[in-house]
Predict the structure.
Amino acid sequence: MSSCINDCKRVHQIEVEPLPESNKVEHSLLLIKGRLQPNCASVKQLKATLNLSLCKKKYEQLTQLSTAGEFKLLLDLTDIDLSQEELEQEDCQLQLSCCNGELRLNFIYQPRRSAYRVQPLYLLCRSSDDVEEEQEVQTKEHCALIDLNLRLVQCIYAHKLNAAGYENRTFTLNGVCRVFRSQLSCTAARGSSEDELWQHFASEILSSADWGQQLHLKFVAFIGCTRYDGASVVASGDYSYANIRRHLHGHAALGGGGLALFGSGHFYAWPRHFAKIGDCIRSTERVDVARLPDESNYRRTYGGVYASTLGAVCHELGHCFDLGHTLEGVMGHGFDYLNRVLTVDQPTEHLPQRIVTRVTDKYTDTDTSNASPASSSSVVRPRLTQLRLKQPAGSKFLDNYHAQRRNDSFYFTRNCAVILAQHRWLRPEIDLDLKAQGELNAAQIQLLPASSEIASSVPLRLVELRCNLNSLVAHYEEFQEQPAVHRFQLPDSLWHLLSTKHTHYAFVLTIHGDTKRLACDAATS
């Protein structure tokens, strides 16, 4: 490690963004962001020593300091000899040192427990016997890769919601990735559209003996037989995003209801081991599009592919957690910037903006509190698939610079953070307490056309107006728990969009995490 000269006259302090007030961490990967104050020109790295008391192990790692003395540190709080089911609580001590600055952090790692969980699946379609034998080793590798990277997604959700003021809010993984054997053939899968794949796999999962009718589970699934026809891309001479996607078969990036579905064609850029996460996200190795599909928003690097595709997992999972689209942040075109969450000193990026497009018919009046995978078959699953190839105006470059310095450009907007913090799949396990008190009853939520109101038997927490075409949030109203609000009258301009033009629908969230989509019927409004 680079060290400061022994007679450094400056007194340094290490500052970090605060851990949860309870000093309890519930996710197995922990991201710590901080800086050395004042900056020291002689020091390039910070040393971190993690002591895990239960398993009596010590881990050391170095992390790079930015030119401004900032650092980001990713820690694995698990021990490979102890499963998460066996681990009740781990006392952790983290020692940070840089030049003559030192900081000791003591916290508890207690694996998150919740009845509402997310189950990872690796989807194997039918193929010939000899191919299935060859797939066995690859399947194990891919399942391990999925487990690691979903733990990172879990960490990023917690980190960003903590930054928004909500501690220990993230989803609970329902164990390791499991193999799901589909009746769909590889040939049929590669000939199907994204929406057809989503519909088929959602139906199969719902009707399966292992996973059917488990209303407290949502699924994030990866299709094992994704294939890329790079030769045809080269022959066409068209290296655009749209053409590359056109030649990627058995692929999806689509989430909603109880299923987020993805292809496996970009696993080449994903880390297989914790120690490789930093190398993968910073990789500048160029993507050979003759062999491998590029999904980096035109960065054409392995690191760009990893950032955009893992960012897409965060985005599509957000739809499973009832989030709509926003102009900025994770649920807008900001999910491409996941690399900035984990790194320091990256140059400002000016990437093409993604365009929200429509997939299926408009929303119906749907209660999504316990939606199963197939229950949103009638629900829009809008996608950010196209790219607007237009460079920002001069002032936009400066705006991008400030935005990326301030919040990594990867964040949940206020309305999204409120939904996630209140959502049953992410909030602390308080439902049992509410049941014991007799307070957890299904909310009765309805539109009252005569008064232009939304009424709920359980106090309201948030109301959004979303566009039917692309689920883009046009307006939202946030309510505090006290004083309790059971009725909200929509302003005339918003009620006009909902009841007269029928271009928008209302999304409603209660303080107990009940969610419902409400639309006016053109025949009765």
